[in-house]
Write a structure and sequence with these properties.
Largest sheet: 2 strands, antiparallel
Strand order of the largest sheet: 1-4
Distance between the termini: 88 Å
Strand content: 15-25%
Order of helices and strands: EEEHEEHEHH
Number of helices: 4
Amino acid sequence: MLSNRKEARRRGKIQLIDATTLKFQLRKNLGQKNCELTPELREQIVKLYLDFEDNEYSKIFDNSAFGYWKVTVLRPQYEKPAYGRILGFRREDSDLVSGIVNNSCIPIVTNLKNAESVLNGNLSAARMFKDDLRVQETYQIGLSQTVTEYSLPMVIL
């Protein structure tokens, strides 16, 4: 029960009553209902409330136990990306890709051939795109070269 008009002994205190174990099991379920509160159980719960004592069903806390601190968390502000890339999609996904392109707040490159027209006017995005292509090409060159293992015979002295 919530009340602004508490007795003097209850002021500054909060009483929590756990009555989940106080129930009378029905002989037969009524839909999802399989237990009920009998008048005797209701009286027991009211008695727990009126006694205002700490026991296995009732716990009493100070108001300060339920207080909270307001904490402001500062996170770094990230800039939105200058562009997005969707390359190598299947033809059957073209409707999905066009939906992404039409609803995006940043330019989306879907084809290397039309990248310059998509990034037209955005110099930083065009510069980043060219750098990304250079990195990708360097990575591909590194993958294509076979690495041969070289080892010296072990000499025991």
